[in-house]
């Protein structure tokens, strides 16, 4: 009996779909979840209870039907064999499974519609994620000014006008990235500007997500994920790191790059960065300081030597040009004197 109730309850949860599980914030999931609990779940539980009462009887009936179908198939095969026809007539598809799938699909659509309708009278706080009714102007939890538009408006496609289910990233009709997703990406990259100003900014696509982790060398690690990005985008970012002075910690082929910034060793780890189908890397304070300082000194000395050599060559070229100029002038004077002497 519990199994069937769980099946129906899971169908309700699945029906809400991205509008609850992948909504723009915890507040939306909580708010829509409460709406489902108060308006939809009781009815679903009642239905589950009623259906569960007949579960044993239905299971027994299905088992008897399966035995009957199996016997009928065997009889049909024997009859066909006796008639000299090796073909066995196919059995008609049992309609019970199809009906259940249709019912669950209908529930999924209903739950998505419920989530969309609920979000039409809700706003989400851009600061703490609290969800409140649309008549609020300020967040009752943190005091932040709330946006004018409702959650549903954030999933209204600006190109084709389709109203998408809350939690959708791209319009189901035309593929345009939705305003709520754009705003979510902007909020995530604002975290980058706050937490990772020492690193070049990621500008290579994907849906960004940043999360602070445990302390390492007295500063929190930062886990960065770019959903939808892959190895090609990661390679471009590594090239950007190199352009900005980051060097491999263990020579060519290393998965860790670092650079001393204001006396702090800023490190980047891309170990197994694309193993999950998305780019997922870690930024942290490393302990490569002495090695980094020596490498920086070596590179600085090399750059200074190259500069001095360029200046020496330039000076030599200027001196050679002056010498050539003086030589040409002297040759011209000599030629002029000889010409005058010859003309006499």
Number of helices: 9
Low-confidence stretches: 1-24, 34-40, 85-95
Oligomer: single chain
Give the N-terminus to C-terminus distance in angstroms. 133 Å
Task: Give, in order, the helices and strands.
Answer: HHHHHEEHHEEHEEEEH
Strand order of the largest sheet: 3-4-8-7-6-5
**Average pLDDT level:** 77
**Major β-sheet annotation:** 6 strands, antiparallel
Q: Radius of gyration from the CA trace?
A: 36 Å
Helix content estimate = 40-55%
Q: Strand portion, in percent?
A: 5-15%
Helix/strand-derived category reads: alpha+beta
Shape: elongated
Number of strands: 8
Which features characterize this protein?
344 residues; alpha+beta; 6-stranded antiparallel sheet; two-stranded antiparallel ribbon; disordered N terminus
Short description:
This protein has 344 residues and is α+β, with helices and mostly antiparallel strands. 55% of the residues lie in helices and 13% in strands.
Can you put this structure into words, describing what you see?
The longest helix is centred in the C-terminal third of the chain and has 55 residues, at 289-343. With 344 residues, the protein is α+β, with helices and mostly antiparallel strands. The termini are far apart. The strands form two sheets. The protein has a six-stranded antiparallel beta sheet with strand order 3-4-8-7-6-5. A two-stranded antiparallel ribbon has the order 1-2. Helix 1 (2-16) crosses helix 5 (95-119). Among the domains are: 1-55 and 109-192, no CATH class; 196-287, no CATH class. It has helices at 2-16, 18-21, 26-53, 55-82, 95-119, 151-154, 179-195, 231-243, 289-343; strands at 122-124, 131-133, 207-216, 219-227, 247-248, 256-261, 264-269, 279-285.
């Amino acid at each position: 009996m519990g199994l069937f109730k769980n099946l129906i309850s899971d169908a309700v949860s699945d029906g809400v779909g991205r509008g609850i599980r992948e909504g723009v914030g915890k507040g939306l999931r909580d708010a829509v979840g409460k709406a489902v609990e108060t308006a939809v779940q009781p009815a679903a539980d009642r239905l589950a209870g009623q259906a569960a009462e007949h579960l044993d009887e239905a299971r027994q009936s299905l088992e008897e039907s399966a035995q009957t179908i199996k016997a009928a198939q065997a009889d049909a095969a024997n009859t066909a064999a006796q008639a000299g026809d090796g073909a066995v007539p196919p059995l008609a598809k049992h309609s019970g499974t199809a009906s259940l799938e249709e019912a669950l699909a209908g529930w999924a659509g209903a739950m998505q519609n419920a989530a969309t309708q609920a979000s039409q009278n809700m706003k989400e706080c851009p600061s703490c994620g609290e969800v409140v009714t649309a008549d609020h102007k300020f967040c009752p939890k943190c005091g932040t000014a709330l946006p004018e538009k409702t959650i549903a408006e954030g999933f209204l496609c600006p190109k084709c006008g389709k109203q998408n289910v809350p939690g959708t990233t791209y319009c189901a009709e035309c593929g345009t990235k939705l305003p709520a997703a754009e705003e979510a990406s902007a909020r995530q990259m604002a975290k980058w500007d706050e937490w990772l100003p020492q690193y070049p900014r990621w500008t290579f696509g994907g849906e960004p997500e940043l999360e602070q982790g445990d302390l390492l060398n007295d500063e929190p690690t930062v886990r960065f994920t770019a959903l939808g990005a892959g190895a090609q985008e990661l390679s471009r970012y590594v090239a950007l790191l190199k352009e900005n002075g980051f060097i491999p910690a263990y020579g060519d082929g290393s998965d860790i790059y670092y650079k001393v910034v204001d006396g702090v060793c800023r490190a980047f780890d891309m170990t197994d960065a694309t193993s999950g189908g998305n780019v997922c890397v870690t930024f942290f304070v490393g302990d490569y300081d002495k090695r980094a300082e020596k490498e920086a000194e070596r590179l600085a000395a090399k750059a200074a030597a190259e500069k001095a050599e360029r200046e020496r060559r330039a000076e030599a070229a200027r001196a050679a040009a002056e010498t050539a100029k003086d030589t040409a002038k002297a040759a011209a004077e000599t030629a002029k004197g000889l010409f005058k002497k010859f003309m006499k």
